[in-house]
Design a protein that fits this description.
31% helix, single chain, four-stranded antiparallel β-sheet, 162 residues
Length: 162
């Protein structure tokens, strides 16, 4: 027994996509690609900003570590030459360091650098007639990235070693 498929005039044009369907499909794929590209570009910008913030944090933390570990810090005592036993980084006042490296792009070599300002103040307290020497240090790192200014700040207290 042989069965034959009957073709009618109405069923001949239904085997493929129409031009409208193809244009709609290509448009949807294009919108998806454009959205993905925009999202990835924005994520890359966020990553660059976070990377630079981490670099500024690291620079400030390194300075704080230096201020807390440099010795001897005994403002109540003097050296043989009559100067107080205070490391140069802990002298009272404002100290500015320029061209502090924040980040260096390994492939393009672009360097983001900033300015570190360390402000040291005397925060000594008197307790029961005794003066307890303490210094407060505030470290601020400022830098510019893509024509925007950024700033990061940290503070610490340092008491006498004795």
């Amino acid at each position: 027994m042989v069965f034959h498929k009957k073709h009618s005039k109405n069923s001949l044009g239904l085997d493929g996509f129409t031009l409208i369907e193809a244009v709609v499909a290509i448009t949807l794929v294009g919108i998806g690609l454009a959205t993905s590209y925009t999202a990835l570009t924005k994520i890359n910008a966020f990553a660059s900003t976070a990377r630079n913030s981490t670099g500024a944090y690291t620079a400030a933390m390194n300075q704080i570590d230096l201020l807390l570990s440099d010795s001897p810090f005994n403002p109540q005592k003097t050296n043989d030459d009559g100067t107080p036993q205070i490391p140069p980084e802990l002298t009272i006042g404002t100290h500015t360091t320029t061209n502090v490296p924040i980040y260096k792009e390994p492939t393009s070599g672009v360097i983001v650098s900033g300015t570190m300002t360390t402000t040291v103040t005397d925060a000594s307290v008197t307790y029961n007639g005794n003066t307890l020497p303490m210094y407060r240090a505030t470290v601020q790192v400022t830098y510019t990235y893509l024509s925007r200014n950024y700033s990061f700040s940290m503070s610490t207290m340092r008491a006498s070693d004795i």
